[in-house]
Write a structure and sequence with these properties.
heterodimer; A: alpha/beta; Rossmann fold; six-stranded parallel β-sheet; six-stranded mixed β-sheet; 19% strand; B: ABC transporter involved in vitamin B12 uptake, BtuC; 13 helices
């Protein structure tokens, strides 16, 4: 009950703050806008983007003013939302979902003076940069841990949509698990949604019923983690630290750590040094962070995973190093060959050994 | 065999929020009101059920408050549409949007928290029967409540005088009014009942199925419940069946994928909606309408002119 009352108070505070901002017009802080696809309370994708917004506020204090629009569906509404931020004199606007790509480009054309930062897209312009994270590096680590720790040799994988990013994650985790456990099997279930806690829980239950004793997910809610905790098995958190939902179940989480990048881009605008560019960072520059390994992981596995993490960060290990064949047996990478970024960016095939057909 | 039992159990759990919401809406529509705000009432039930359970430590109090929250939202809808005669479709849509927004506001302090989920109850002897015990007698109390609710509503509508009056109001409100029945009062009562059911359905998600709170966690289940009511042609038993069909298709397609069967999952997800569309087409053909039971006064405002 207390929190409800507190929330009403915070609402009042927000309203009065807006009123204040409207009246005051002081030292012209840099205006930073964010467009989110989900609610900031999703504990996953959008939650982490919002943490980067808060980090910007913390880093620059009164020199910036941030705004965000949450739960903006990908589609015609997105263009209106981005345009709204552009019209209200924002200096830099972060659009944080793949589906915002075309609207971002369209709005950017109309507002050439405003800088745009689009997460996970591939279309750029004079005033549009793109940024994304090499999540597959994190997937390599969890694949190693899962391969070592599974008793049933069956990993359950809850996947969202068959786009390159998700397929890349499956392949990276599978190759890593296979490298330490040749008998490993991945059961992959596509739920066709980023966010539907009920359905994600159903999928987790289905995978456990079919013998999976470790779960991986590429969806946004902590539902699968919670099911794993209840059923007494292990799981890996996605996008943010999900330990609260699975204190015993979570082995580690792959965390999307956008803050350093976003801060550097805001700084660039302040310094007048902003240029359009494409950024694809991984564990090295800590855009992908691995949360503390659970005590449940045996010490030798922990140190193996830690070494792999450090090697990836140092650039001496690449999760996609040949020889690797595609699922149909045709060769993809020769021995010692490292996957070119172009292949990774457009990955639309399973690697050899993954079972099942990739949905079209 | 074990897998089959697990699949059946999974279906029943996945379908239970739909059963509550659909049965509630069915009674509302039988009384001649179309409340499209099911999604909004469910999400309000989900947030208040979760919040109150967390604050009070009692799941029972949580579920009761979820019912109250859903009922209150429905009462608001009732006041607007029955007393102030606003358009039911527009008001229902507004209720959904309002519910989603208000629940996000109320739930701000609760994201990241969890509660102890409702436990299954073990019935001596019955739960120990091989196979059958696992399929029928191994659930949490809310699932038994959903079975009971369906039975009671079916009996109430078909066998009681009050049920007959409620149906009369839905079929011909002018005639019911002429006979001296309080059309508006009966509709308000039906609405509050429907809202309470939707609230419990939402709370089932946030307390039992995935015991945490996140915004939008109902993810369109309210709309599916509305489709199930049409699918059922306004019969409670068929609504139960329809909910299990929808839940079943969801759960089975997940299992089918896990087993590596090569059917496009999207095709299976589509099936229940296709059936609903077919039923809708059949209903909109006038000759069949009477047979299919659509309440004749559905979505018509009632104004006592004399």
């Amino acid at each position: 009950m207390k929190s409800i009352i507190r929330n009403f108070w915070s609402l009042l505070t927000i309203i009065s703050t807006i009123a204040l901002i409207g009246s005051a017009n002081a030292a012209d802080p840099l205006k930073v806008g964010f467009v989110y696809v989900g609610p900031i309370g999703d504990h996953g994708w959008t939650y982490e983007h919002d943490r980067s917004r808060l980090a910007i506020e913390k880093a620059f204090g009164s020199k910036v003013k941030t705004t965000y629009l949450e739960k903006i569906p990908e589609g015609p509404d997105a263009e209106r939302a981005i345009q709204q931020l552009a019209r209200t004199d924002h200096d830099i606007i972060f659009t944080t979902s793949f589906g915002f790509m075309n609207p971002t480009i369209k709005v950017a054309k109309k507002f050439p003076k405003i800088k745009f930062e689009h997460a996970t897209g591939f279309k750029r312009a004079e005033n549009v940069s793109t940024y994304s994270a090499r999540f597959y590096e994190g997937r390599h680590i969890i694949g190693l841990i899962a391969g070592k720790m599974t008793k049933t040799n069956t990993i359950g994988y809850i996947a969202s949509f068959p786009i390159p990013e998700v397929v890349r994650g499956i392949n990276a985790a599978y190759l890593a698990a296979k490298s330490v456990n040749p008998a490993i099997k991945f059961k992959i279930v596509w739920v066709n949604t980023w966010f539907d806690p009920g359905k994600e829980a159903d999928a987790a239950n289905a995978l456990i019923a079919q013998g999976a004793d470790i779960l991986m997910q590429h969806t946004d809610s902590p539902a699968a983690m919670q099911v794993a905790e209840k059923k007494g098995i292990f799981a890996f958190g996605q996008a943010s630290n999900m330990k609260a939902f699975g204190p015993n179940a979570q082995l580690t989480s792959i965390i999307n750590n956008w803050a350093p990048y976003c801060i550097s881009r805001v700084k660039a605008v302040m310094d007048g040094a902003w240029k359009s560019q494409d950024t694809w960072d991984g564990i090295g520059p800590s855009m992908v962070a691995i949360s503390k390994f659970s005590e449940q992981i045996p010490a030798d596995v922990r140190s193996m995973a830690g070494k792999a993490r450090d090697a990836i960060a140092a650039g001496t290990l690449h999760p996609f190093t040949g020889p690797i064949n595609k699922q149909d047996g045709s060769p993809w990478l020769k021995a010692e060959e490292i996957a070119p970024d172009g292949d990774l960016a457009g990955m639309n095939f399973y690697v050899e050994g993954v079972e099942g057909a990739l949905p079209k | 065999m074990d897998l089959l039992i697990l699949i059946l159990q999974g279906i029943i759990v996945a379908a239970t929020p739909l059963v509550f919401a659909a049965i509630g809406e069915l009674v509302v529509e039988r009384a001649g009101v179309l409340n499209l705000g099911v999604e909004g009432m469910m999400i309000l039930g989900a947030v208040s059920g979760f919040a109150i359970t967390l604050e009070s430590g009692s799941i029972l109090i949580g579920i009761v408050s979820a019912a109250l929250a859903g009922g209150a939202a429905a009462l608001l809808f009732g006041i607007l549409t029955q007393l102030l005669l606003s358009n039911q479709v527009a008001t229902g849509l507004a209720l959904t949007i309002f519910g989603l927004g208000l629940s996000a506001l109320l739930g701000q302090g609760y994201s990241g928290a969890t509660v102890m989920a409702l436990e299954k109850i073990h019935i001596t002897v019955l739960s120990d029967i091989p196979i059958l015990g696992a399929i029928i007698f191994s659930y949490d109390p809310l699932i038994y409540l959903s079975f009971g609710l369906t039975g009671c509503v079916a009996w109430f509508l078909a066998k009681t005088r009050a049920g007959l009056i409620l149906r009369a109001v839905g079929e011909n409100h002018d005639a019911a009014h002429a006979l001296g029945y309080g059309v508006v009062k009966i509709r308000l009562a039906a609405l509050v009942f429907g809202g309470a059911c939707a609230g419990i359905g939402g709370a089932y998600l946030s307390i039992v199925q995935t015991p945490f709170w996140v915004e939008d966690m109902t993810s369109g289940r309210g709309w599916i419940a509305l489709a199930i009511v049409v699918f059922s042609t306004w019969h409670p038993g068929r609504a139960l069946l329809g909910a299990y069909l929808f839940g079943g298709v969801t759960v089975v397609q997940l299992h089918v994928q896990g087993l590596g069967v090569d059917i496009q999952a999207q095709v299976l997800s589509m099936l229940p909606y296709i059936v609903t569309i077919i039923v809708l087409v059949m209903i909109s053909r006038d000759t069949l309408r009477a047979k299919l039971n659509a309440p004749a006064c559905l979505n018509k405002s009632f104004f006592a002119s004399s």
